[in-house]
């Protein structure tokens, strides 16, 4: 699973910016577009 498509468990449900890598974006976009 991709960090960008999971529910954030950080305070205030903000994105865990320190854990997100550039290579996480394309797979997340592809996965989310399939759901549309």
Task: Explain the overall architecture.
It is flat and about 30 Å long. By secondary structure, it is mainly α. The model has no long low-confidence stretch (mean pLDDT 94). The chain is built from one helix and no strands. The longest helix is centred in the C-terminal third of the chain and has 10 residues, at 25-34.
Features:
36 residues, mainly alpha, 1 helix
Give the SSE layout.
Blueprint: H1 25-34
Q: Number of helix segments? A: 1
Strand tally, please?
Answer: 0
What is the averaged pLDDT score?
A: 94
- Low-pLDDT ranges: none
Overall form: flat
Helix content: 25-40%
Which class best fits the helix and strand makeup?
Answer: mainly alpha
Distance between the termini: 18 Å
Characterize the main sheet. none
% residues in beta strands: under 5%
Radius of gyration: 10 Å
The SSE order reads H
In a nutshell, what does this entry contain?
With 36 residues, this protein is mainly α. The protein has 1 helix and no strands.
